[in-house]
Amino acid sequence: AQSVAQPEDQVNVAEGNPLTVKCTYSVSGNPYLFWYVQYPNRGLQFLLKYITGDNLVKGSYGFEAEFNKSQTSFHLKKPSALVSDSALYFCAVSLPWANRDDKIIFGKGTRLHILP
Amino acid sequence: SQTIHQWPATLVQPVGSPLSLECTVEGTSNPNLYWYRQAAGRGLQLLFYSVGIGQISSEVPQNLSASRPQDRQFILSSKKLLLSDSGFYLCAWRDAGREQFFGPGTRLTVL
């Protein structure tokens, strides 16, 4: 069964420092990988995705993620954190669109606190 | 461009009352549609998904039900709410091989 793990419930980073939010996955085949961000009382917003190609994916708000097949990881990164980056971040995985009822499996979420 | 709407934004209901939450999508045809529940600002629980009109798959047996009467309309219902039904309900759509797009959510409080 496919699964996603976000090992950290919370990550604290000082403003201006680089940040990393970790994600590992378990899925057979070649996965699609996603990162979403959620601000309080809002829906999830799509940040970036890896489908195929370059292992380093760039997304919205200066975020990027690196796909590492050997380590089955897809960590979210940003070179310089902003206080406004404080939010709940979700990693997600799905199998390629083999049939229409494929689901996206979400991690439990990591709360990112950027300290001024 | 595609947009997704949910209403109401907030809802306070007594235990035992019925529920109807609505989700509509604009700007796309025949999307996959999803209902999630999020408790206490944490993980997402997939409740239902639909690949077409009248086609509903249930992920978690409970007192909730879903219907898709039209291509871009997805409704979450209950005949009698429980306290444990409180949470943040999110609707999402997905098109072929792409990411999911989420609605703004409905905050349900059952008293």
- Spans of chain A of 5+ residues with little confidence (pLDDT < 50)? none
> Which range does the strand content of chain B fall in?
over 45%
Alpha-carbon Rg of chain B, integer: 13 Å
Largest interface: A-B, 25 and 26 residues
Structural class of chain A: mainly beta
Uncertain stretches of chain B: none
Counting copies of identical and different chains, the oligomeric state is heterodimer
Overall shape of chain B: it is: globular
As a whole number of angstroms, the C-alpha radius of gyration of chain A is: 14 Å
Largest sheet of chain A: 6 strands, mixed
Distance between the termini of chain A: 41 Å
What's the overall average pLDDT of chain B, rounded?
Answer: 92
The secondary-structure class of chain B comes to mainly beta
Mean pLDDT of chain A: 91
What is this structure, in a nutshell?
The complex is a heterodimer of chains A (116) and B (111). Chain A is an all-beta fold and 116 residues long.
What does the model show?
The complex is a heterodimer of chains A (116) and B (111). With 116 residues, chain A is an all-beta fold. Chain A contains no helices and 12 strands. Chain A has strands at residues 3-5, 10-14, 19-21, 24-26, 32-38, 44-50, 56-58, 64-68, 73-78, 87-94, 105-106, 110-115. In chain A, the strands form 3 sheets. In chain A, strands 2, 5, 6, 10, 11 and 12 form a 6-stranded mixed beta sheet that branches. In chain A, strands 3-9-8-7 form a 4-stranded antiparallel beta sheet, with no helix packed on it. Chain A has a two-stranded antiparallel ribbon with strand order 1-4. Chain A is globular. The mean pLDDT of chain A is 91. Chain B is mostly beta strands and 111 residues long. Chain B contains no helices and 11 strands. Chain B has strands at 3-7, 10-13, 19-26, 32-38, 44-52, 55-58, 64-70, 73-78, 87-94, 100-102, 106-110. The interface between A and B is medium-sized, with 25 and 26 residues.
